[in-house]
Amino acid sequence: MRYWVGLTDRDWYRLLAHRSPDEVNFWQPSPRRPVTLEPGAPFLFKLHASAGGKIVGGGTFAHYTRIPISMAWDVFGEKNGVATLAELVSRVTRYRRTAVDALADEIGCMVLVQPFFLEEHAWIEAPGWKGPTQRGRTYDTTEADGSALWESVERARAAAPGFARMIAEDEARYGQPILVAPRLGQGSFRTLVTDAYERRCAITGERTLPVLSAAHIKPYGQSGPHRLDNGLLLRADIHLLFDRGYVTVTPDLTVRMSRRIREEFENGRDYYALDGRDVRGPLRGFPPPSREHLEWHGDTIFRS
Fold it and tell me: Are 43 and 26 in contact (CB under 8 A)?
């Protein structure tokens, strides 16, 4: 099993260790992807040499994306390891050593779910590390260094507070060097849906990123999962109409507009022009919208 150890700073670790979130954005100041990993691969955090240089936690890799700094803040907030957007901009500026535009400049985002954070006494040395300038390193459990490090991580996790809860949620993965499908959080769901739909509204084809948002077909608050097959990328106004039942998508991926738009608002010409339109699915290799969830939306939410 291949996994990655990436460098981070102590402030990022401290804030997130204190918050114990369900997902984190391990961002890079450059939008260039540092490594190719399969979803479900372990990803470990290592502090810079100036901060101790040891492995202090990790998580499960869910998705990589490159998005504007402002969008990273909108999607992940403090899960970026900072308290404010201004602080995120400041850190990116410091690493790039040049001024940045939060609305236009992109950063690379390694989105991780089910993160864990080790207490200082349990921090782990990284074998075979090449020096303080190295951005990260791939390890493999079939090799001596990778196997020894993975065993050390498992022992540290087993001794960490809250490990019983982690086992109950993740028993199938613990202790076995295999990849598993990661359970997405809200932020990882949003970024995965955005990229799977090629940053285009599934209904209108709109490509202006700031007005696009990932819609749950079945709301998370009503047991709808954070899964790609429960998502659609929609323009903001279409998303709002979808959530309120004025538009739905049939199991055959056709748009239906409710007559209530005309009855209640005496308007809707532009929206009715979309009625009967085919919905664009995600890129090849990604699951299409779930028929079950689309049927639920049509039967439960849609105002026919």
Answer: yes
